[in-house]
């Protein structure tokens, strides 16, 4: 069944991408074309084939001691350098709940 | 004295090591070539003269101090703009990351620098590597040096074009579904996607984590082999758990014999709808050249390859959606001003930071991972991956490598493919290799008889047997080029333009 604009708006909400103007209609058309293109994959829901999630088998989680990794860790200043908004040692964001007062 | 574009990476390194050229002269010539050619090619998003001259100075100082030089000392290199390099922005050709300053250097880039390379700049790409034309860059398109009204391919189109235009002898790209091999084919250069895990992805902005791999472009197979040796020197990178130990011995396989070795051909691939006659005849002539050099051609069948495009456009967008969820406008990336709350800030930052194709891929991924849909598509795609991988494994019981097209057609004009799902078919010959995880290399074989644009063959080898790509690629080069010269060389319109060595 084809995806409707309502469906696509719901997906956009989930993906946190605000669709504006003509974008909803264009995206709905694209999504239906793309899903049609994916149709052949449905024949591969085969009960006797195991899925391969990754080309390298046998990988395990990398564990380390719970201490600062000086090779990979960024300093606070470096971590904040690319942020759109920061205050003191923190990333600054608008209100998480409700309408907020940042407008 | 010669123009910088007549020299291979190997020749430059050798001239710098012997003192015939200083690294500074080479860097200045490369920057001069970039300046003279960029107006028409537009391969770069940033040119980095300060980094290049400083790196060249270090090479010259080391030589003056009598230190042994690393293998690629003084060789100019360009880096795709999804790879972090301290002192540059890493934009992924997206408004989202327009002002993102690299906080650290990617392992693959660092290894090229450790090998003595001189970084000339960051190259254009399709936004976040979503595309096959480089036209989805948020900043500007890149032009194919063989015909500037055509695309260079993508997503690593800037890297391929920079090498084809003679701006640099070496460049790095990344390949999730063909993003090194397809632009290499369209620009007439050698481009290699090694086996998944051969090269560290640490510091490369992720697209499809089970598919992404970094690899080099060059004008000769030898240069690509030397770059591969640099990329794997140092072995496993503890910052990328998928990276594997690979011996830096690619260059040792350049002269290996192909006598009596077997080359697979997939008949259904050669008859596929959408394959242009001139590309088919180029691949056939490449196969015949390998046969003439002593290899045996063997037909192989990979019955599940029909599922590859559909499997890829499930796995790729699903992984892209997960990876690009990090761009929420808080820690980095475009931040929409004056939002009432965090949810609005995220969805408006993403709406205005991402371009159309980046939104499409993420929307498709979000849908495919949603409840009730996930089971239908995602599992089926991963089962298809099992079968495709098994198909390749069975084929490699019979053959050493497989030869096939890299791109179904030569470079097309900017804007010629406007339907996104049609554009996805550009990857029909490259995608299955990312799904299986093995390596592939594009080798140019000349100009198409109809279009006059570069045509190429793709060699594919079993996982972690990438040295075979070097051996068979070098054999093709010997068949199609004279005496160590590249098969194609620099695109004629740019050859000798700027870049004269003093």
Description:
The complex is a heterodimer of chains A (103) and B (502). Chain A contains 3 helices and 2 strands, in the order H-H-H-E-E. Chain A is mainly alpha-helical and 103 residues long. A two-stranded antiparallel ribbon of chain A has the order 1-2. The two termini of chain A are 41 Å apart. The mean pLDDT of chain A is 90. The N and C termini of chain B lie close together (6 Å). An 11-stranded mixed sheet of chain B has the order 1-3-2-4-6-5-10-11-9-7-8, sandwiched between helices. Chain B has helices at 9-18, 23-41, 49-64, 107-114, 157-164, 181-187, 221-232, 267-270, 277-292, 308-324, 342-353, 356-368, 374-398, 420-423, 431-436, 467-480; strands at 44-47, 76-80, 118-123, 170-175, 190-193, 213-218, 262-265, 296-299, 401-404, 439-447, 454-461. Chain B has 502 residues and is of the alpha/beta class. The model of chain B has no long low-confidence stretch (mean pLDDT 96). In chain B, 38% of the residues lie in helices and 12% in strands. Chain B has 2 domains: 4-303 and 386-480, Amidase signature (AS) enzymes (Alpha-Beta Complex); 308-383, no CATH class. Chain B has 16 helices and 11 strands.
């Amino acid at each position: 069944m084809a995806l409707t604009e309502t469906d696509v708006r719901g997906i956009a909400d989930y993906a946190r991408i605000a669709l504006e103007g003509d974008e909803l209609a264009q995206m709905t058309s694209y999504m239906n074309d793309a899903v049609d293109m994916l149709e052949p994959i449905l024949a591969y829901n085969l009960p006797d084939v195991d899925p391969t999630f990754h080309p390298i088998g046998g990988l395990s989680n990398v564990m380390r001691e719970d201490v600062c990794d000086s090779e990979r860790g960024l300093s606070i200043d470096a971590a904040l350098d690319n942020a759109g908004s920061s205050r003191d040692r923190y990333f600054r964001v608008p209100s998480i709940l409700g309408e907020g007062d940042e407008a | 004295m010669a123009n910088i574009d007549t020299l291979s990476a190997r020749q430059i390194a050798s001239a710098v090591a012997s003192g015939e050229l200083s690294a500074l002269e080479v860097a200045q010539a490369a920057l001069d070539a970039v300046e003279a050619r960029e107006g028409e090619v537009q391969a770069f998003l940033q040119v980095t003269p300060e980094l290049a001259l400083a790196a060249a100075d270090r090479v010259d100082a080391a030589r003056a101090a009598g230190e042994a030089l690393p293998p690629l000392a003084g060789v100019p290199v360009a880096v795709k703009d999804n790879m972090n390099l301290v002192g540059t922005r890493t934009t992924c050709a997206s408004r989202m990351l327009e002002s993102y300053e690299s906080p650290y250097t990617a392992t693959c880039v660092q290894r090229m620098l450790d090998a003595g390379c001189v970084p000339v700049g960051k190259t254009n790409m399709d936004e976040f590597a979503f595309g096959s034309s480089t036209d989805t860059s948020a900043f500007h398109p890149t032009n194919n040096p063989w015909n500037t009204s055509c695309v260079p391919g993508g997503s690593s189109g800037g890297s391929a074009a920079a090498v084809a235009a003679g701006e640099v002898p070496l460049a790095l790209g990344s390949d999730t579904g063909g993003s090194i091999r397809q632009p290499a084919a369209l620009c007439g250069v050698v481009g290699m996607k090694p086996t998944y895990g051969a090269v560290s992805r640490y510091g490369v902005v992720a697209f499809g984590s089970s598919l992404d791999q970094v690899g080099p472009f060059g004008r000769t197979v030898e240069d690509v082999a030397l770059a591969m040796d640099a990329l794997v020197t140092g072995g496993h990178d503890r910052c990328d758990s998928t990276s594997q130990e690979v011996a830096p011995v690619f260059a040792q396989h350049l002269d290996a014999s192909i006598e009596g070795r077997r080359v697979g051909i997939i008949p259904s691939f050669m008859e596929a709808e959408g394959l242009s006659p001139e590309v088919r005849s180029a691949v056939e002539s490449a196969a015949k050249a390998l046969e003439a050099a002593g290899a045996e051609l063997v037909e192989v069948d990979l019955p599940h390859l029909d599922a590859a495009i559909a499997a890829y456009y499930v796995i790729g967008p699903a992984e892209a959606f997960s990876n690009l969820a990090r761009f929420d406008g808080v820690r980095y990336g475009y931040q929409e001003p004056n939002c009432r709350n965090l949810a609005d800030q995220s969805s408006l930052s993403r709406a205005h930071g991402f371009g159309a194709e980046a939104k499409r891929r993420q929307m498709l991924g979000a849908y495919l991972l949603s409840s009730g849909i996930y089971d239908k598509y995602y599992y089926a795609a991963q089962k298809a991956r099992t079968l495709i991988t098994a198909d390749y494994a069975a084929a490699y019981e019979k053959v050493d490598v497989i030869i096939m097209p890299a791109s179904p057609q030569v470079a097309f004009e900017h804007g010629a493919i406007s339907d996104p799902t049609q554009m996805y078919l550009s990857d029909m010959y490259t995608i299955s290799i990312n799904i299986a995880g093995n390596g592939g290399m594009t080798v140019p074989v000349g100009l198409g008889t109809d279009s006059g644009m570069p045509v190429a063959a793709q060699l594919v080898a079993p996982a972690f047997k990438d040295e075979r790509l070097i051996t068979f690629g070098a054999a093709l080069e010997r068949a199609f080029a004279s005496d160590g010269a590249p098969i194609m060389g620099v695109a004629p319109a740019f050859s000798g333009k700027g870049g004269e060595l003093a």
